[in-house]
């Protein structure tokens, strides 16, 4: 059994991890940590756990000492010290935040206004995009779990970039996220009367996920890739829909694209390339670890439109983190993650 601990269990992504890990046969949850709820049962705060998991929330130090595999689900800028402890004590560490995703400190400084204080740790970090970096993840001890928007976008573009089927190196991407993406803290934008029956873009071409998206797409393409990324806030709890517009090389047919996507993804349990004509819809990935991708062709302008959908809390956070753990421990990658979305 893997002795697992969660730091930040009182947050949305942390408590989603707890919900999923309770169904994982190879995991023993030995400690859960919450800054504001220490000494209280988690079921007091989140009643869906009543009688199922009434574990008492402990301090972050308790989690670090008791567990061998530590998940941190905290606002960015807080995880380095936990990763340092894990590194010094031969424990594995998966960060659901953004502190171990960017290769260049300069990008972290520019987009997060923070420095890397434990620089040597960042040489060990592996970007936990499971379907792409599986071999590196197997050997890793520190994982930067990908951001929710970047997960939907990078998986959507991977086969195309790997095969060099794009004409240009600049993509326009618009993504829409449910409000749980913003976490549990109250804000004007996510207040019910404000976001309900509304729909609007935010942080247009300035969102902090932009360097992460460009970094990973550039690695896939072995070339510099640039994006104009515009996120939107959807008045639903969960789910992300990313729509990506691509100019295709002149000699590429739409049928080539379909073939390549199936070649890359048909063996991947969590990635479903939909039949031509179907449109990926967040309803059918909610509460699941699937990423659904649909491919569409604008024949008038020889453009490809990729629609990629995930549940931001599962494939975009807790589910992908567990998939990473499964790979690190060399157990079946789908373990604890085979749930299917409700149909309505
Ligand atoms: N929501 C999402 O869809 C996704 C979130 N993430 C990332 O996961 C991380 C957590 O996000 P999310 O769960 O949404 O956020 P929440 O705001 O819901 O939760 C934040 C958690 O961090 C804890 N926390 C806050 N400040 C401190 C502090 N100074 N010291 C210790 N603990 C602290 C909170 O504890 P307490 O409440 O007890 O004070 C809470 O458990 C973030 O980095 C986020 O970017 C990643 C992918 C998707
Ligand atoms: C709707 C919403 O507000 N979404 C968040 C992104 C989700 C998130 O938590 O970001 P990470 O994946 O980097 O952890 C935002 O725009 O900041």
From TrEMBL:
Gene expressing this chain: argC
Broad class of the protein's primary localization: cytoplasm
Domain of life (superkingdom): Bacteria
Entry's localization field: Cytoplasm
GO BP annotations listed: L-arginine biosynthetic process
GO cellular component: cytoplasm
Pfam families tied to this protein: Semialdhyde_dh, Semialdhyde_dhC_1
Free-text function comment from the UniProt entry: Catalyzes the NADPH-dependent reduction of N-acetyl-5-glutamyl phosphate to yield N-acetyl-L-glutamate 5-semialdehyde.
Catalysed reactions, semicolon-separated: N-acetyl-L-glutamate 5-semialdehyde + phosphate + NADP(+) = N-acetyl-L-glutamyl 5-phosphate + NADPH + H(+)
Keyword Cell division: no
Pathway linked to the protein: Amino-acid biosynthesis; L-arginine biosynthesis; N(2)-acetyl-L-ornithine from L-glutamate: step 3/4
Keywords tagged on the record: Amino-acid biosynthesis, Arginine biosynthesis, Cytoplasm, NADP, Oxidoreductase
Protein name: N-acetyl-gamma-glutamyl-phosphate reductase
Active site: 148
Semialdehyde dehydrogenase NAD-binding domain boundaries: 3-140
Family recorded in the similarity comment: Belongs to the NAGSA dehydrogenase family. Type 1 subfamily.
NCBIfam families named in the record: argC
EC numbers, comma separated: 1.2.1.38
Keyword hit for rRNA-binding: no
Molecular-function GO terms, alphabetical: N-acetyl-gamma-glutamyl-phosphate reductase activity; NAD binding; NADP+ binding
